[in-house]
Amino acid sequence: MTKQINYDQDYWNRFYAKQIGLSPSQFAALIATEFDGRCNILDVGCGNGRDADFFASLGHNVLGLDGSQIVVAANQLRINDTPHKNISYSTCRVGLDTLTDVTSSQVDGFFDDGDLVIYSRFFLHAIPPEAEMKMIEELAKMANVKKVYFEYRCGDDEGEPKFFGEHYRRFVRPSQVSKAMQKIGSFSLGYEYIGRGVAKYRSEDAHVCRQFFER
Ligand SMILES: C[S@@+](CC[C@H](N)C(=O)[O-])C[C@H]1O[C@@H](n2cnc3c(N)ncnc32)[C@H](O)[C@@H]1O
To answer: Mean pLDDT throughout 82-86?
Structure first.
């Protein structure tokens, strides 16, 4: 029997209703230096779009996906007021909706033909393991996905105080992600960093894992 996958949409809708400010993350600044030429980027769990907007401002084609329809509507409203035509946002609840369906309906006519980059920051730890597995299985089927960039909270972050109080978080084991990405998705691990000092936010210095995959 398939296990029920929950997404706490109410929490995230309330969270984004109060948000302002759009500086890109430290991870996005790093990943931007990895790209050669114009890329097609799918930002999975894009939140308020700070990183997606940043990549679009550099000239990449970006589609931001998030399960919160409030944040997707706010993102779409914001970009309607900008001259950028290389960015769009769409609602997608990973684990419940089919990533491939949502993206293929958007990809036609939006992304250039060619390879797709998956960028996903502080997302894997916000979804249950079943949803993570579904996402990896879907990536496995998307032949045009050549690079995947993850940053997420990992095991040693458990028990540390968090700046943004309680919501669903789990502390992911990097070896499990890389094993699944390699075995199911046929991706190879090109880079891994596990530790602190790269995702500091106010009083928090989260213990994170950064992984770059390619095929
Ligand atoms: C911690 S935020 C990260 C946002 C953004 N990537 C960033 O780094 O600022 C996690 C995001 O995942 C979204 N989310 C959680 N579960 C989801 C799911 N199953 N499908 C899609 N989005 C989900 C939330 O709505 C939220 O925007």
So the answer is: 78
38-121 topology per CATH: Rossmann fold (3.40.50)
33 φ/ψ angles, rounded to the nearest 5 degrees: -80, -10
In testing the pocket of ligand 1, which one of 14, 53, 123 has its CB within 8 Å of the most ligand atoms?
123
Please indicate whether residue 51 or residue 105 has the higher confidence score (pLDDT).
Answer: 51
Is the distance from the beta carbon of residue 66 to the nearest atom of ligand 1 less than 6 Å?
yes
Q: What is the pLDDT at residue 159?
A: 65
Domain ranges of the chain: 38-121
Query: pTM for the complete prediction?
Result: 0.88
Please, are residues 214 and 146 in contact by the beta-carbon 8 Å criterion?
A: yes
Task: Examine the pLDDT at 59 and tell me if it is beyond 60.
Answer: yes
Please tell me the distance between residue 67's alpha carbon and the centre of ligand 1 in angstroms: 7
Of 3, 10, 16, 66, the one to substitute when testing ligand 1's pocket (max ligand atoms within 8 A of C-beta) is: 66
